[in-house]
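Hi R.,

Here's the chain you asked about this morning:
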Amino acid sequence: MLLNELFGENARIKILEELLTYDDSFLTAEEISRMADVSSKTVYIHMNQLEEIGILEVEKKGAKRFKLNSNDERVLALGLIETNEYLRRSNKQELTFESSEVNPEKLKQFSNYAEIEEFLDKAPTLEFSITL
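And the predicted structure, written out as tokens:
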């Protein structure tokens, strides 16, 4: 997956990639564990941490189920990175970014999550479109 290549292979990246893949679905920790090939204990640890920082939506009907919080700007940034890299590799046109507060080209220059977070703090409204 692309985030692994950008940020290195670790359990949290594997988990986030699976959540990005199924962004409209609530998933149990067991489902995430199986798909990401990460132990259930590790998934629970990361899910609790991600829930604490507000990056997840949690459904507590029966077994606790998780999905990415589509209103969280960090989730949007991860999705943009994943999509932009996919388009670049498949020789399709790149994403276009519009932000009235910060240079949109900045998003393409990030080398780590902290830089993305700093950018999003400065640009609370970020719009994008995909042209194929």
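The helical segments are 2-7, 11-21, 29-36, 40-52, 73-89, 113-122.

Let me know if you need anything else.
M.
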